Structures are given as C-alpha cells and as structure tokens.
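Researcher: I'm preparing a figure for a lab meeting and need a structural model of a single chain. I don't have an experimental structure, so a prediction will have to do for now. The sequence is pasted below. Please return the structure as tokens so I can convert it later.
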Amino acid sequence: MKVRDCMSTEVVTSNLRDGLRQTFFRMRERKIRHMPVVGDHDELVGIISDRDLRQPDWVATEENVGHYYLLDNAHKVEDAMTPQPITITPDADIGAAADIMVQHKFGALPVVDQSSGNRVVGIISAIDLLRALRNQTA
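Model: Understood. Here is the structure written out token by token.
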C-alpha cells in the first residue's frame, strides 16, 4: 500500500508569520496535532505540532498549568516550528512512512510533491497508519 492510499489530503497549513495563539486554536478547532508550515510560494518550510507550543519547563515547576501553552500572537510559528522537516512522497510505501515515524518518534509526516517544489499534497499520521492496518486485517 502506498502513502497516497491512506494520507489525509485536506491539509490545514500554517504560515511562518501566523501567531502561535491563532495556530493553537486552529489546531484545536480542526482537532489536529500537526500542521505543515508553508512559505510565500506554498513550499514546505517546516512543521508545527501541539508539542512545539508547549513549555515543558513551566510544567515541571508551575502548578498553574494555564501557562502550559504559549498562546501569545506576539510569538510567530517560525519561532516554534521544526524547520526543514523530514517528508515522504505519495508514491512511497506506507512501511517506509511507519519506519520513519517510529525511528524519529513522529506523530505525522508531511507528504510532498518534490516535482512541484516541495508543495504539500497531504499529511500521514499515526492514526492514518493504524486505520490502514485495520483495513488490511479486516
């Protein structure tokens, strides 16, 4: 089975200059945990996850977990994202996607079309892989 067979194609993306507060609430509203970040020409430049928005040092010392997330629009996505993320292509085998995700402990991988300047065409998550496994074993 190929990545294209189980990836999500309705990808919600973020821009480098989006505020972290608006990004957090967009992720929450859409019930997603990973968002590819695109540049001015719609090319993939990074990925941001709900984990990137957390302040783990505060959690360890702060009893008030209301500060658990950076919800300030003064901070931009480019300040918290992972730049130049590892990607996969739609024609790759889902086993390759699973290997990368397990090796790096990723929850998702951006799927890009390398022939069009690394344009995001999908995202594959651990849930997508589990769904594919369930469908294969049903």
